[in-house]
Design a protein that fits this description.
Elements (H helix, E strand, L loop, with lengths): L2 E7 L3 H12 L4 E4 L5 E4 L3 E8 L2 E8 L2 H18 L23 H8 L7 H14 L9 H14 L3 E5 L5 H9 L5 E6 L2 H14 L5 E5 L2 H6 L7 E6 L6 H11 E10 L15 H14 L4 E6 L5 E6 L1
Parallel strand pairs: 6-7, 6-9, 7-8, 9-10
Antiparallel strand pairs: 1-5, 2-3, 3-4, 4-5, 10-12, 11-12
């Protein structure tokens, strides 16, 4: 399902949104949110309108290029018709499918990496080792800035007991364990002896192996075998996406008040944002994203960190 955006300079963004919503309400499903954000749903597509200071942001999505062009045309014509006191320019970007979305601009990505505490020699060596040992699968390893983010979150939460679902070669495990106190514990869940053998080696060298309990086997079984009491301080989920909803539920039940669950890859490379993608893992992630925002057990925020990171804090 392609999408396109337009950035319209105007001193009256909120006024135009109200006019469009009011006018379109007779022709389509039009809704105005309390924050001024408008949504117009046509038969074959949608346009979201957001006021932002001195401009109006438009996001059009549809099932195909022809339908997208129709949404753009209707919204543009009506917007220009309402602009009687200023001359507007509505220039839509080229259509983009979910798998072509650029979540983070390369320039921003490079700037992020060079403006957080640098990775030490051991973590840098682990990145090289992972690339050599796993080839294309090395993309599953979290980036350095996300690792630094994890360590900071563990320390900010004051965590003593942590859980990780999805170890791979151990980079994120080291980042989590380094944030724990000396008597803290990390339960690390994975199904691969091969990849976690690399992790074990680097845990030892990082001096955190004594804080990590590795469980090889289906993570859902490991989580369900945990005591029912609320004893987890922080959890990081970065494993098979189809089972994310199951992992989330088992962990949230065991989070202590103020405890945090961190979920990686909630955008799935932009495919979650594009309803055209209907594979099982796309559907599971969409369901989970919708569930979390409506889960009255937690307060949550979704961040555009790398491939999307959600933080959910137990109330």
């Amino acid at each position: 399902m392609p999408s396109s955006t337009a950035h319209v300079a105007t001193t009256r963004p909120s006024r135009y949104i109200k006019q469009l919503i009011s006018h379109m309400d007779h022709k389509a499903a039009a809704e105005l949110a309390g924050d001024g954000r408008g949504t117009i749903t046509f038969g074959r597509g949608t346009c979201v309108l957001t006021p932002s200071g001195d401009h109006l942001d438009l996001i059009a999505t549809a099932g195909d290029i022809e339908a997208l062009s129709g949404v753009q045309d209707v919204v543009t014509r009506h917007l220009l018709r309402f602009a009687t006191q200023e001359e507007l320019s509505v220039d839509w970007t080229a259509p983009v499918a979910g798998d072509s979305m650029q979540i983070i601009d390369p320039v921003v990505s490079d700037y992020l990496l060079t403006h957080c505490t640098p990775a030490d020699d051991l973590l840098q060596e682990l990145v090289v080792k992972t690339r050599e040992a796993t080839g294309d699968a090395s993309g599953m390893q979290i980036s350095h800035d996300e690792g630094a983010f994890l360590t900071m979150l563990v320390r900010m939460v004051g965590a003593r007991r942590a859980v990780e679902v999805g170890v791979f070669t151990g980079y994120s495990s080291i980042c989590i364990a380094r944030g724990l106190p000396e008597d803290g514990r990390l339960l690390a869940c994975d199904v691969s002896d091969e990849w976690t053998s690399i992790a074990r080696h680097y845990w030892e060298r990082a001096g955190v192996a004594d804080r990590i309990d590795l469980e090889i086997g289906p993570a859902i079984e490991t989580l369900r075998a945990l005591p029912a009491e609320s004893s987890i301080d922080i959890a990081f989920i970065d494993a098979d996406k189809v089972n994310y909803p199951l992992y989330y539920e088992e962990i949230v039940q065991r989070l202590r008040p103020g405890g945090l669950v961190v979920l990686d890859n909630v955008f799935l490379g932009g495919r979650v944002l594009d309803p055209a993608y209907q594979e099982e893992h796309h559907l599971a992630m969409r369901r989970l994203n919708d569930l979390i925002v409506n889960d009255d057990r937690v307060d949550s925020v979704m961040l555009p960190v790398r491939d999307g990171v959600t933080l959910a804090r137990r109330r």
